[in-house]
Amino acid sequence: MRTRVKAVLALAGVLMLAGCAVPGIGGSGGTSGSGSTDGTSEGTARGGREQVSCAGSASVTLEGRDLRYDVVGDCAEVIVRGDDLDVRMAASTALSIEGRDNDVESSAELGAVEIKGDENDVEARTIASISIAGDGNDLEADTVGSVEIAGNDNGVEAGNDPQPVRVSGNGNTVERR
């Protein structure tokens, strides 16, 4: 039985290296999605990162599991609905995370960050406001505006003292680094 499993995995690896899509394994076998009608996918770039472009007023939705996205340009709204996504982006007026175990890094400023999922990590230069309704999320920024947490075991680390701060739940921290 193990020999058969190894053979199937080896064949899948060869097909992926050859550029063939294997349903359910990597590629775009229906698990990745970018975009509302405003977001456009640029395809997969080097290193397996899919580039998604949006105009200044565009909304982009990122879906799937265990995928990597580069969001190009400043977006009005980025919605992360997938699980275990690695997202690199510039500025956004609104960031909404509904999935689990996502890693989002912004090289610029984020407006309103709303997290309804669990175990997500967000890093940005500035976050205007944070609203968390999930558990086990970690956010870090040089400057943070307001913070509202209604889940458990969440952490916010800022280079300033965020104001106002409203926290309910257990094990939550909002601290200045």
Please summarize what this structure is.
It is built from one helix and 15 strands; from the N terminus they run H-E-E-E-E-E-E-E-E-E-E-E-E-E-E-E.
Describe this structure in words.
The protein has 177 residues and is mainly β. It has two domains: 1-28, no CATH class; 31-176, no CATH class. Helix content is 9%, strand content 47%. It contains one helix and 15 strands, in the order αβββββββββββββββ. It has a 15-stranded mixed beta sheet that branches. A hairpin with a 4-residue loop joins β2 (40-44) and β3. The longest helix is centred in the first third of the chain and has 16 residues, at 2-17. Mean pLDDT is 81; it is low at 5-42.
Number of helices: 1
- Write the element-wise H/E pattern from the N-terminal end onward: HEEEEEEEEEEEEEEE
Uncertain runs with pLDDT below 50, 5 residues or more?
Answer: 5-42
Tell me the total number of β-strands: 15
* Strand-residue proportion: over 45%
Helix content percent band: under 10%
Q: Between the first and last Cα atoms, what is the distance in angstroms?
A: 53 Å
Main sheet, how many strands, which sense, barrel? Answer: 15 strands, mixed
